[in-house]
Amino acid sequence: MNQLHTQKSPYLLQHADNPVDWFPWGKEAFQKARNEDKPVFLSIGYSTCHWCHVMAHESFEDTEVADLLNRDFVSMKVDREERPDIDAVYMAVCQALTGSGGWPLTVMMTPEQKPFFAGTYFPKRRRYGQPGLMELLKRVAFLWKTDREQLLEAGDQITAAIGQGQPTGRQEPGRELLHKAYRLFHSQFDRIWGGFGPAPKFPTPHNLLFLMRYAKLEQQPNALNMAETTLQAMARGGIHDQFGGGFSRYSTDETWLAPHFEKMLYDNALLLLSYLYAYQATGKEAYADTARRTAGYILRELTDPRGGFYCGQDADSDGVEGKYYVFTPDEVQSVLGEKDGKEVCRLYGIAEGGNFEGKSIPNRIGQTKPPLSADDKRLQKLLQYRLNRTRLHKDDKVLLSWNAWAILALAKAGQVLGEEACGNAAVKAVRFLEKSMTDERNRLYLRWRDGEAAHDGQLEDYAVYALAMTELYRLTFSVRDLEQALLRARQMMELFEDKEHGGYYITAADAEPLIARPKETYDGAIPSGNAVAAMVLQRLAGLTGDPFWQEAADRQFTFLAGEIERYPAGHSFSLLALADALYPHRELICVKDKGVPEELRQYLMTHPADGLYILVKTRENAQALAKCAPFTAGYPIPEHGAAWYLCKNGACQAPVQAFQNLPLEE
């Protein structure tokens, strides 16, 4: 009997009516496998995954496949977004066995959780040389009964191999790591269309953030050019929702025209950060416009009324990929009238014959005219028409780490764009997470949905949340936000740090044991938890002046340097964190009777202020701030105006009373 009806995960609920007798991950399923002497069939995916849908329709909704699974296996479904620890363990298995990975992830294992087979999507029956699921299930069932030792031996070997594959390298970090990464990006760069390597092309915003930061640190304009070329090409392409804002997951072609249409919260949060940084670095209004549209998409489409942010939206509508987004000229003209309709079609490449399966993905590739403003009535009409025409499935889980990325990006948007709605949304989300996603021990939950929080928080949850709180502090200068950053960073160290070999595990020391306890350092679609941990620790060292945090940061950089050396371009967020330590840094303390000086807010609107750690001390917050940053206790509060204290690379300068007299060269 299918056991998924009681779950909260949208992905698991999508499979609750399958004829397969699915179990969620847990002791009950493994005990059943032992009792019935059967292998375990594990399928991992997520609710907005196109190929997960395809495999579900072809196989898991099919009674023939279900009969085989129910007879010879105990079957388990896992939402990778709810259990990234399980996904990380078995994705490592798949990559070790096949050289690649992805979702849906298909694994067969013993009742002791030892995998002996792994792959991704399989059609129901053999197709073009690709094995079919029916054949695989029959073969494994046969071997389980007739030659089990072969499977058990493979399971032991695979389990031992992934257990030994933990990063342990340590070395002294240096700037050469950043130079190597830049050279790698330069060699892979598509000089015509932007991005790196051939199609499919992924935005990978943290790579762009690294290049923009490197350009400034090393006075290397070519690094900025690579980032700008990519950001501009993506903004013009079909990967960017020209009518509604926000970005799809990736582009299937080199020109960024035809995306895989799913939209994810983390992509849009990190891209929002990238366009904001580009705007500050160049002053080009087009980047601010794209940032506003992206923030607008998050606030309009992915925000829960309680304050959290949803995971994303599906690529498919009515079972057809991209149906929600594409148009014909006749459709546009029927909504806007002939004159306005033709103008919009010219601006956005909507033509007879189309550019995607007979219809057109709106895009501005090759356009010299600027886009219509986001609040243009024509765009608003098309948005409403699109919404009425067909709807997208929305994964309405609230994941803590993804929410933290959104909080960080929206706090930055509130600061840079002066958009109060963005800053307010970030603050509201924090209040929601504190109220609804913390347990009685004040530890974090990983997921919330439909009134229920579940699953213990993992490394990314603590690291990204702590980082987001440092960014929110820069917006609000509320000591409460700094206190929260310090709390979550301390918990991160207590629960996840490998005190013996360095680095941080994905799961907490008291978490459910799996066959391996992985550490991830490589950046995928999202920066690794270890990379974010390094940035958090370095920021807190700069903000508090406490050697405790600097020593923790130094340990983490020494651990990461050995991993970065293998392929620096795969560790761009670690390199961003490392830049904070390796390049000149400054501390700025503003002491004022009350409030935050407007000139500081104006400065932060237009300057990235990299490597600048800012504290604001007032009569109201002096005591609380001193607990976070003890060195501030000795700074006297003036009767009138403000006093500014600037320190550079360990040397403090004389205080000044006028902000404009500070030597804050960028």
Describe it:
The protein has four domains: 4-164, Glutaredoxin (3-Layer(aba) Sandwich), CATH 3.40.30.10; 176-314 and 395-582, Glycosyltransferase (Alpha/alpha barrel); 316-392, no CATH class; 586-661, no CATH class. It is an alpha+beta fold and 666 residues long. The strands form six sheets. It has a five-stranded mixed beta sheet with strand order 1-3-2-4-5, with helices on both faces. The chain has a four-stranded mixed beta sheet with strand order 17-16-18-19. The longest helix is centred in the middle third of the chain and has 18 residues, at 265-282. It is 48% helix and 11% strand. The model has no long low-confidence stretch (mean pLDDT 93). The protein is globular, with a radius of gyration of 26 Å. Residues 2-162 form the Spermatogenesis-associated protein 20-like TRX domain. This is Thioredoxin domain-containing protein.
Question: Which short descriptors sum up this protein?
Answer:
666 residues; four-stranded mixed β-sheet; 19 strands; alpha+beta; 11% strand; Glutaredoxin; Glycosyltransferase; 4 domains
